[in-house]
Amino acid sequence: MSSLFQYDPDIGYRFVPHLKVRVATSDGGYLLRTNALGFRNDREFETRSSARRILVFGDSFTAGDNVSNGQRYSDHLDQALAPVEVHNFGLPGSGTDQHSIIWNKFAKGADAEVVVIAVLVENIRRIVSAYRPSVGDDGSTEFIAKPYFQLQGETLVRFNDPVPRERVTGETLEAEAKVDRGGRFPELRKLVKTLGLQGVVQQLTRYQPTPEYDDPRDPAWRLMRAILLSWRSQIPQPVVLMPIPLYQHVEQTADPAAYRARFSELAAEGAFILHDPLDDLLANDAQIRRGFRFKTDVHLTPAGHRAIADSLLRTLGPLLAGARSDP
């Protein structure tokens, strides 16, 4: 997968521009196309445009890992809202801190009617990390540096600016606290996944995949809150804040109450338009909800992307109609 990305001193990495490739996966593979900026978008993006546009920021659930261009929730929105253009700035493996930097580097001051910030709930772990794992084309795992922020008092201070280019091994970072290794108890999770017992174990243990949301004073949540409030203060357009639930929340093996409370409080504080898609996803029966993720991967399937798009349309449709009717 490393051949799909290139170094970026501000973000850490982004897609190689002008890619048009088929990516092989255990679920069959998908088609990937990037524009000149190095994002998965079939359209080019210019700061100035007479078109009505929505800009979407997020991680792999927005970029569309394992799903072809044209099948992601942003593509469904683009088709449903035409002639409004939906531009996808999603970046796999990235955190909300990096998404704010992407906006600042490529989209600050750009013509747009709405900005959508999609926050995978697990991103609360990524933002406190200075490194992220990366799987090379030979299957080996290395760690790449990322930009990150710390709160000093109430002030956000950036580190890794510019982002170090060199990759490091896991052994080098063994004692490093600021490494996101992909969730809590990774070895246990790997074993449970192999045995196919995730749902059973999570129900029995009352598994909480993101305890950082439990307390509004939690350092990770305070950092997430500060990043999003700072970013929101710089965006003149309406901003839709969409927390994307983990599959445990969608399949009802984990309690979503804590993260939903935090994002609801944040939306009121920061004048975000909150779009929480979980209720719309839960309106489907269990078998359909299981089809929102792949058999061997937690990312959204085409059906999952369609469900997110259908839900988000409930907020974006009226919002765009209201913008059009304003004098």
Keywords:
327 residues, alpha/beta, Rossmann fold, 5-stranded parallel sheet, 35% helix, globular
Write the layout of secondary structure elements.
Layout: E1 5-8, E2 12-15, E3 20-23, E4 30-33, E5 53-57, H1 60-63, H2 73-81, E6 85-88, H3 96-107, E7 114-120, H4 123-126, E8 131-135, E9 141-145, E10 148-152, E11 155-159, H5 186-195, H6 198-205, H7 219-233, E12 239-244, H8 247-250, H9 257-270, E13 273-274, H10 278-282, H11 286-290, H12 302-325
Parallel strand pairs: 5-6, 5-7, 7-12, 12-13
Antiparallel strand pairs: 1-2, 3-4, 8-9, 10-11
Structure summary:
With 327 residues, the protein is α/β, with parallel strands linked by helices. It is built from twelve helices and 13 strands. A five-stranded parallel beta sheet has the order 6-5-7-12-13, with helices on both faces. The protein has a two-stranded antiparallel ribbon with strand order 1-2.
Characterization of the model:
The protein is of the alpha/beta class and 327 residues long. The protein has a single domain, classed as 3-Layer(aba) Sandwich (Rossmann fold). The chain contains twelve helices and 13 strands. The strands form five sheets. A five-stranded parallel sheet has the order 6-5-7-12-13, sandwiched between helices. α2 packs parallel to α12 and α7 packs parallel to α9. The model is unreliable at 184-205 (pLDDT under 50).
